[in-house]
Amino acid sequence: MDALDLARWQFGVTTVYHFLFVPLTIGLGVFVAGLQTAWYRTGKEHYLTLTKFFGKLFLINFAMGVVTGIVQEFQFGMNWSEYSIFVGDVFGAPLALEALLAFFLESTFLGLWIFGWDKLPKKLHLATIWAAVIGSNLSAYFILAANAWMKHPVGYEVVDGKARMTDLWAVLTNSTALAQVPHVVAGSFVVAGGFVLAVAGYRILRERNATGLIPRKKDFSDVTMPMRREVDMWRAALRGALVMTALAGAIVALTGDMSGQLLHTQQPMKLAAAEGLRHDTAGAPFSPVPGIEVPNMLSLLAAHDPNATIQGIDDIQQRLVAQFGPGDYVPNLPIVYMSFRVMIVFGMATVGLAFLGLFLTRGRGRRARPVPTWFARLCVLALPLPIAAIISGWLLSEIGRQPWTVQGELLTAASVSPGVSLTEVAISLGLFTLVYGVLAVAEAVLLIRHVKAGPDEPMPAVAPDETDRRVPTLMY
Amino acid sequence: MTLNDIWFAAIAVLFTGYFVLEGFDFGVGALLPYLPKEERERQVMIGAIGPGWDGDEVWLIAAGGVLLAAFPEWCATLFSGFYLPLLLILLALIVRGVAFEYRGKHNGRRWRRNWDRCLFWGSVVPAFLWGVVVGNIVRGIALDEKHEFVGTFWDLLNPFALLGGLTTLALFVTHGAVFLALKTRGRIRRKAKGVAEKSGVVAAVLAIAFLTWAQAMEGSFASVLLTVVAIGAWAAGMVANFFGREGRAFLGSAAALGAATISLFAALYPDVLPSTVGSENGLDIENAASTPKTLQIMTWVAVVFLPLVLLYQSWTYWAFRRRIGVRNVPASH
């Protein structure tokens, strides 16, 4: 055990933790903005209720995403100083752009949105949430472009052992980034969709329980029962999430296919590791779950040619040794293999759930079909699936890149801070784990409490001065 | 004036923005256990910085990103060398940020008390440690010929840097009190004014000692001039506070913090991180910088977007420009 191992653990732990919150922020923010737009356009009260309800869940989650994000930026310099020196000239630019273009927008306008209820003119208040979520999505683009450069470095040259930027446009339009950005952002919408499905499903079950609408024996008999307004409201939320998840799911599948093809040409080792393919194989098979093998499928997926040759782990290893000298260039195979399957199976299951739900709840107006109780239960149970899928996607992507931090240019072992001791990294890993653990409990408690409590009652009458628009609405 | 000069100035501007803006947020957090008598007064204090604190903190994130882009070696040596202080600052900022958002979302005495503790420590710790970090940057740290920090954590706690820590803590507390006097009404406003009267004097004594010491070590003509401006602005701000001119008092303390930060960067120039063992081991704006290509692109980005950021961030403060008091606290809270 040395500082390198712990620094890697710390990066893994803090990044996975950070990424539990980020997809929800990206997707749920747009969902809330959409609800508020619906309220602004139609004036229907239940959209406002939903905006405030999901807005609160969004903020509980947002806070965690922000504070854990600062760690990510500082960690590069603290634990990975050699990496920072090597990549700073190229990698720093998207990071600085992210702060200047995206984070300022996101934080400033979210503050206005939180404190501007009933203070700012309605239209302007709606614009603030859109500005904030545009900031969130823009930040995803910049950080993913930076990350894509680590897997497929472009627009640079190496001078005196440091990467120097030759073309920022090439970095920002890296083919890897252009496939990865929509894949991850759409994946975030699937996660947010799954979250809203679970919450709406839970609220539907709860309202039905409270009103005796859940019959004791036949689950589908409630189809003919009269529905209450609340159930209608949650049906609307659920339908919205179903549409979002299904659309985003289609984009995830499409861009996942693009990413697979790029792996074939840009990161063959990751592709081989994901399939556990040992040797260069023409017409390589694919096994969606261990034990079942579809012949020629991997070649078809990765190269769009059933007879294409896919490079195998052992053969790539030999070629890399010939190119870069002795060393182990194979990533952790079991993790890469498993995370690839978890991503695909759980991700597909979520999107399948969305399409099923759209079918079950089809129809508008008087012919609208209510949400079957069993489907509402399924939505609650499915909550972990998209989260597990998107985290696995990152494990595949980042562990599959090892032993490199910058593919073909810089090894992880050569990236770590030489001056930082094992003790220091141990202290920081320990403290982060402790604080993150406590905060995770606090966040979970708050989310569960608010979902259980349901939407707030309308605000009580306030003192006359409360109508002064230039005073923030006290929200904390 | 070369690109490296411009980007050194840009880093100085970003840190100045950060200290001026988040400085009063820290001050308000540090005063949270002392000024209010009851929950509604605490909500007034937090509400005064509520809409803005997150935007204020982005100045730090921007400074960090720009540091990596423009001066990778500076960023690498600074962050890995100041490992433990930065770790504590990060942890403090984490619990503080979550506390803002979470304290009001559940109505329990213990819940609120614990988050209030997070707000207090999450404000005091960075307010002190930023001074320690800045003090050490100006003084220089032990760097070897590969620009790696070779000292220990305890070397960072030298008398000069500790004085720097106390200085920023006192300055930020006063800055926060002046801000509260400007933004609130009623008892909090009066108490904040009283605190600023006393802490302003303490901060002045500490700041004069710290800045004079810094100028004696590293000073140039420009940096000494800026130090004098900073002290003058502070004095003017404190006099204005004494006479209840809250707007002018806040302008004074903001200008003083800005001038003091820039004076320290000016004293540092053209070094960015001097070495205390062999001056040739130190980092300066030439050997720590990125290539002209990157700096050039960054210049365009900054020229276009930084004014835009300033514009909409100022607008946030303008939109909520009125004082808040306990009568603005909804009865349900």
From TrEMBL, chain A:
UniProt keyword Plastid present: no
Protein name: Cytochrome ubiquinol oxidase subunit I
Signal peptide: none
Annotated compartments: Cell membrane
Organism lineage: Bacteria, Bacillati, Actinomycetota, Actinomycetes, Streptosporangiales
Cellular component, GO annotation: cytochrome complex; plasma membrane
Keywords (A to Z) from UniProt: Cell membrane, Electron transport, Heme, Iron, Membrane, Metal-binding, Transmembrane, Transmembrane helix, Transport
GO BP annotations listed: aerobic electron transport chain
One MF annotation (Gene Ontology) recorded for this entry: oxidoreductase activity, acting on diphenols and related substances as donors, oxygen as acceptor
InterPro entries: Cyt-d_ubiquinol_oxidase_su_1
Transmembrane parts of this sequence: 20-41, 53-71, 91-115, 127-150, 184-205, 236-256, 335-362, 374-396, 425-448
Membrane topology: Multi-pass membrane protein
Any matching Pfam family: Cyt_bd_oxida_I
Organism: Herbidospora galbida
Family from the record: Belongs to the cytochrome ubiquinol oxidase subunit 1 family.
From TrEMBL, chain B:
Tree of life domain: Bacteria
Keyword line: Cell membrane, Electron transport, Heme, Iron, Membrane, Metal-binding, Transmembrane, Transmembrane helix, Transport
Annotated Gene Ontology cellular component terms: cytochrome complex; plasma membrane
InterPro entries from the UniProt entry: Cyt-d_oxidase_su2 (IPR003317)
TM regions (residue ranges): 6-35, 80-99, 119-142, 162-182, 194-214, 220-243, 250-269, 297-320
Iron found in the keyword field: yes
Pfam family, one: Cyt_bd_oxida_II
Membrane-topology descriptor: Multi-pass membrane protein
Keyword hit for Electron transport: yes
Record-level Gene Ontology MF annotations: electron transfer activity; metal ion binding; oxidoreductase activity, acting on diphenols and related substances as donors, oxygen as acceptor
Location in the cell: Cell membrane
UniProt record, GO biological process: aerobic electron transport chain
Protein family per UniProt: Belongs to the cytochrome ubiquinol oxidase subunit 2 family.
Annotated NCBIfam families: cydB (TIGR00203)
Name of the protein: Cytochrome d ubiquinol oxidase subunit II
Organism from which the protein derives: Herbidospora galbida
Gene name, Swiss-Prot/TrEMBL: cydB
